[in-house]
Amino acid sequence: MLATTYLGLLAVTFFIGRVVPIDPVLAIVGDRAPTAVVERIREEMGFNLPLWQQFLIYLRQALTGDFGTSVLTTNPVMTDIVRVFPATLELATVGTLIGAGLGVPLGVVAAVRRGSIADQIVRIVGLIGYSVPIFWLGLLSLLLFYAKLKWVAYPGRLDVAYEYTFTPITGLYLVDAAWTRQWDVLWDAFRHIILPGTLLGYFSLAYISRMTRSFMLNELGQEYIVAARAKGLSERRIIWFHALRNAAVPLVTVIALSYAGLLEGSVLTETVFSWPGIGLYITNSLQNADMNAVLGGTIVIGSVFITINMLSDLLYRLLDPRTRAK
């Protein structure tokens, strides 16, 4: 099943790359190149072959991590992706930690106090998170927290003073700065990531809180909750140690999919905040007709999504004995 899904991903990206009105050969040699040069490059790149042969070549190269050379950077696409992906990974991780850390408790409170003012507030917050365009909220937050209040740093990952003196190890600036005990760099990296991370966390919170509320309402209506109350257990213990523990089984999948969604859906956030991640890389590549980079980045993001989905299914089976029995 996993192999079929990945093969489908490669097939979709391949055919998208062939039907878009962008000639990759002209993107390399330019519009004014002689016809002979264009045809020679087209033959060298294999675009004169039948479509099925082109797909087989594309499949073989993709499975070995060869996505061609970027027209924009002149580097192998995989080299560029390895360089920019840690930025997206760090931003999505911060967003997921904020979203799950706040979304789960808010969802629990909304379920326990169903119909109350607290429930209505949580639902309104979630509705706004679903409805407001992320780029608009990003621009608004920059205007308020950076331009007006000066609470956060300007867009990017680090100040210019640290960009050429700080040598990252893993590409995760917060982790690398803490590991090397460069506390000034750590604080600067935190001031840069806190606003886009909180923005992504808010949209993750909207989804996680809604699903937590739904799962908790289902668990609170079960017979074992009635039995626990009849035994005289405290309400806090019933909610947080019994109902939430059972609701956590499907909630793991929700958080995992939310995390994968932030990894693949942070293009607008990275663009607004000039965050040098894979989303901004794909956007810049698309604007410059660099289809090798666009398709390579799409495959990597799709592969990450498939992997996280598979791991969440495995974790679901480990946490829920009923699925193992089947």
Automatic annotation (TrEMBL):
Residues 85-316 form the ABC transmembrane type-1 domain. One of its GO terms (cellular component) is plasma membrane. It holds the Pfam family BPD_transp_1. Keywords: Cell membrane, Membrane, Transmembrane, Transmembrane helix, Transport. It is found in: Cell membrane. GO terms for molecular function: dipeptide transmembrane transporter activity. The chain crosses the membrane at residues 91-112, 124-147, 189-208, 239-262, 293-316. This is Peptide ABC transporter permease.
